[in-house]
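Ticket opened by: R.M.
Priority: normal
Category: complex prediction / small molecule

The reporter submitted a protein together with nicotinamide-adenine-dinucleotide and asked that the result be attached to this ticket for the collaborator who will pick it up next week. Submitted input follows.
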Amino acid sequence: MKPLIWIIDEEWPDYEVEREILRDTFPDCRIEISAHDYQADLEKFGVEAEAIICQIYVNLPREVIERLTVCRCISVYGGGYERVDIEAARERGIKVTNVAGYCNEDVTDYVMAAIYHFYKNLAALASTVAFRPWGARAVPVPPQRLSQSNLHIIGLGRIGQELAAKAGANGLKVTAYDPYVPAEVMAGHGVRKTEWEEGLAGADYISVHMALNEHTTGLLKYEDFKKMKPTAVLINAARGRIIDEEGVARALAENLIRGVMLDTLSIEPPTGREAILSLENAVVTPHISYISVQSFEELKRRAARNVVIGLLGGNSPDLVNG
Ligand SMILES: NC(=O)c1ccc[n+]([C@@H]2O[C@H](COP(=O)([O-])OP(=O)(O)OC[C@H]3O[C@@H](n4cnc5c(N)ncnc54)[C@H](O)[C@@H]3O)[C@@H](O)[C@H]2O)c1
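Result attached by the on-call engineer:
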């Protein structure tokens, strides 16, 4: 076989891991690379590609999928695959895979870092040390210990469960809202199941961990921030559009909660004009919570392996439209 494998990406500096794995099984394969705005290459590579490996940011809607004449698999570099029309792909017999779980450790470390960021306030205290009172006078409102605090997780899947374990080990009490995970399963993870409002009202820290889909888009709205404690902190390292961004900006401007840490936004990369970017109590990071040497390696290796399995006619455990 001499398949054309089309990589759509503009983040990675090289594709050595992918090339090695693909060439190990298909020594004569052709590998072509396009940027996220791949339209100009659709005729050149898309129609000939037997497999596509693409970044989570790449839109593959129905009209594009219908033009892929020989494609047999689409392998997404990441956990979320909401930009690929998996139904259109299924209709054409194209297997779509993601790479779930490869960065659980990284994302949960990010959430713990976000919690500590607000808990200990180190960056703010260090940056003003020359102008401020020393010692207790620098901390007029002492923080609650983590052992007296509550983390509420919205979406107790792979990442949520690992976060629950890490937060529990750091002394936090953990509750979760997830209509698809029974209370007994949550209890097995040391988590107490709550209804929507109860979870929001009782939380000191809230962390969002579910897929973006038609049910979860805009799930957290302005009105929900009124249900939270004024000292609450919201963390989102799932997908930006799960939270109504104008609603959160308004809630922060009105000091309905203490602050937010967002690793994902509605539009990525942002235009720079978003209200959320200029609010003092919003910390926004450029979608980096998944990054480590080890997560990169696993992500690239599994994405390439998923193509090999797909082209050989098999079903990867990472299949999302089987
Ligand atoms: N920022 C990053 O770099 C990064 C990295 C990896 C994953 N992610 C995102 O994190 C998401 C979660 O990853 P995961 O591996 O834990 O997914 P998962 O599928 O294992 O877990 C998602 C959980 O959300 C729950 N859920 C679904 N609808 C819900 C709803 N309406 N309310 C509450 N819970 C609901 C599901 O029951 C499931 O338990 C991914 O979909 C991806 O978008 C982001």
